[in-house]
Amino acid sequence: MESFIGFWSSTFISQFLSRILSFASNQILVRLLEPELFGIWSVRLSLINETIIFWARDGVRKASAKAGKEEATYYRYSLLPLVIGFLISPVILFLSLRAAPEIDGYMVAVFMTVLGSLLELVGEIWAVPQLAQLQPKPTSRVTAISFLLKSVITVILTKTLYTSPYELMLIFGFAHLLYGVLTVVLFFIICKKPYIEYPTKREIRSLRPFAFQTILQWLFSQGERMILLMITTPAQIGVYGLVSDLCALVARIIFAPIEMSVYSLCASQKNAPVDVISILTRVVLYVALFAASFGPQLGPPLLSIVYGQKWSTQESKDVLSAFCRVMPFIALNGISEAFPNARLPQNRLEIYNIFLAVVNASYLLMTYLFGKLNGPVGAIYSNGVAMSVRSAMALYVIFSECGPLWSVFPNPALLLAFGCISVLGSRLGLKICAALLPVFGATVLFLERNTIKYVFDLFKPKRG
């Protein structure tokens, strides 16, 4: 448990710092760029980078953590992300260039982004065995420092050198390349020369269920972007990129570190950590319920104040409201799916993945149909429907092993109250919603005071 606490604390701090800095730099870029150009940075190039990184390392990290429960084979996985990256990057590069927008310098930016992604995967030689052993501090430090330098330098270069789209594309590509270089250099400085063991057939075979699941999760997380790139305008993509960055700030700072930590804890312990799962699930759900209940009313006025008329369109307000409303499903899906991924044996995990494939195929079809009808808003609500189905599947697995674990859900009376605000918020008006927000906050603190005390005790430094 102490190793889990250290892992969660380090990953939370790292995610908090890196995402805040990335978010801050993007907000400066928002003020400097038109929606069409901002969409290239926040959606197109990010999609290329995240696709290579996610496909190459996500399944490897999970397989390494799960294998460590029985035998310390972490180091045999360390080269696999880079190998996978070299195999898939030419395909990603080819597809990206085929769908390239007519903007000077975009192809150069794509090449630099792919190269930066491969360099980032070199860092997995250090990161994979460390994370599998719940030793995240070096990876956390590298991530935070790299994001800081990348963010600051991107803003400085854009502010000083941007005069045409060509210079801007070079800056965007250089930013991704810089992040990859910094990752390798900082890992070498902090951890010195890496220890490497070559993978055997056993490690490669253990990737099979995770490889399939990685593709499914990528389609689920990035399929929305891909479809929107095909059926919406560049300006709509820019608006979608801005609002998704705002909402992802919550998801990546709070939800992602908790999901990663719960997965590592479930994979490394013989018995399911029921208490920790229940408490952390309630934490993320309360955060998401506040977003879903008060975000649609309070978010759009804040958007107008911060970004001005250029970004304060009705479409941006609708997209922000939609993101807020699906936030509880995003939160529940992320943390609940950590359990089956970590606990199911390989044969059952493969069956589970088949059901996921059916859900994902339905989701992509809904995204295309409703995206054509309602733009980004239709795609976001399709995401929410699919998230709810996936959450139900994951909860079935949790309940099967741990029994009816209803303690993962917030207080029923509070759930009803949050639901009423979500439904009636538009009729109540801005001032009433703003007045109710602190009341709800105080009520949650009072009713969940024992949970809060438990969390503080859990993370309180031990003396001696």
Summarize the structure.
The protein has 464 residues and is mainly α. The protein contains 17 helices and no strands. The longest helix has 35 residues.
Hey, roughly how much beta strand do the residues contain?
under 5%
Q: How does the helix and strand content classify structurally?
A: mainly alpha
The low-pLDDT segments are: none
Q: Gap between N and C termini, in Å?
A: 17 Å
H/E element order: HHHHHHHHHHHHHHHHH
Helix % is over 70%
How would you characterize the largest beta sheet? Answer: none
**How many structural domains can be distinguished in the coordinates?**
2
- Overall pLDDT metric: 84
Helix tally equals 17
| CA radius of gyration | 22 Å
Extended strand count: 0
- What is the overall shape? globular
Question: Could you characterize the architecture of this molecule?
Answer:
This protein has 2 domains: 1-206, no CATH class; 207-464, no CATH class. Helices cover 84% and strands 0% of the residues. The protein has helices spanning 2-32, 35-67, 80-98, 106-122, 124-132, 137-161, 165-191, 201-206, 208-231, 234-268, 274-307, 314-343, 346-374, 376-402, 412-428, 430-447, 449-459. The model has no long low-confidence stretch (mean pLDDT 84). Belongs to the RFT1 family.
